């Protein structure tokens, strides 16, 4: 099974870029014939939002890159490349009263697998693979996505 690039975008490190990325990812998947882009939208929002909040991408003049690949006809991989941070992205389960901190936990819950790695210039590439099959009936989380770390 080979990957096929659907879209590559570089966006300014501003809040509006989250919704732009989310829309472009969904539009690219829909145009390629994928039937369900909901998980891809959520993952894109969380990963781009995290890049803007926690890395150099959110500073004035910062940039964030988003790549979308289809893997066969039922899977998509979303990659977000930030401008670096002193910490490694990792999920945590927030307490009941916390309003923030659920981003990577949501990515973990909605993806088939996900991970991150350092790339040149101390940047992070965080990725997630999500199903794009339309599923009917009730939904149930059967297991969290597998997390991978590469250096």
TrEMBL record:
Domain Histidine kinase/HSP90-like ATPase: from-to ranges: 16-109
Source lineage: Bacteria, Bacillati, Actinomycetota, Actinomycetes, Streptosporangiales
Family annotation (CDD domains): HATPase_RsbW-like
Highest rank taxon of the organism: Bacteria
Stated name of the protein: ATP-binding protein
SUPFAM superfamilies the UniProt entry points to: ATPase domain of HSP90 chaperone/DNA topoisomerase II/histidine kinase
Record key words, sorted: ATP-binding, Kinase, Nucleotide-binding, Serine/threonine-protein kinase, Transferase
Family matches, as Pfam families: HATPase_c_2 (PF13581)
PANTHER family: ANTI-SIGMA-F FACTOR RSBW (PTHR35526:SF3), ANTI-SIGMA-F FACTOR RSBW-RELATED (PTHR35526)
Gene Ontology MF terms: ATP binding; protein serine/threonine kinase activity
Gene3D superfamilies associated with the record: Histidine kinase-like ATPase, C-terminal domain (3.30.565.10)
């Amino acid at each position: 099974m080979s990957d096929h690039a659907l879209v590559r975008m570089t966006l300014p490190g501003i809040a509006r870029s989250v919704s732009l990325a989310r829309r472009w990812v969904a539009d690219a998947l829909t145009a390629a014939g994928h039937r369900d882009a909901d998980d891809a939208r959520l993952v894109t929002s969380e990963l781009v939002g995290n890049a803007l909040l926690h890395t150099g991408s959110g500073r004035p003049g910062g940039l964030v890159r988003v790549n979308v690949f289809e893997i066969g006809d039922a899977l998509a991989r979303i990659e977000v490349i930030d401008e670096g941070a002193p910490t490694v992205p990792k999920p945590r389960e927030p307490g009941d009263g916390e309003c923030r901190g659920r981003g990577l936990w949501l990515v973990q819950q909605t993806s088939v697998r996900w991970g991150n790695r350092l790339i040149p210039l101390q940047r992070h590439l965080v990725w997630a693979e999500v199903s794009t099959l339309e599923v009917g009936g009730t939904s149930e989380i059967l297991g969290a996505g597998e997390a991978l770390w590469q250096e």
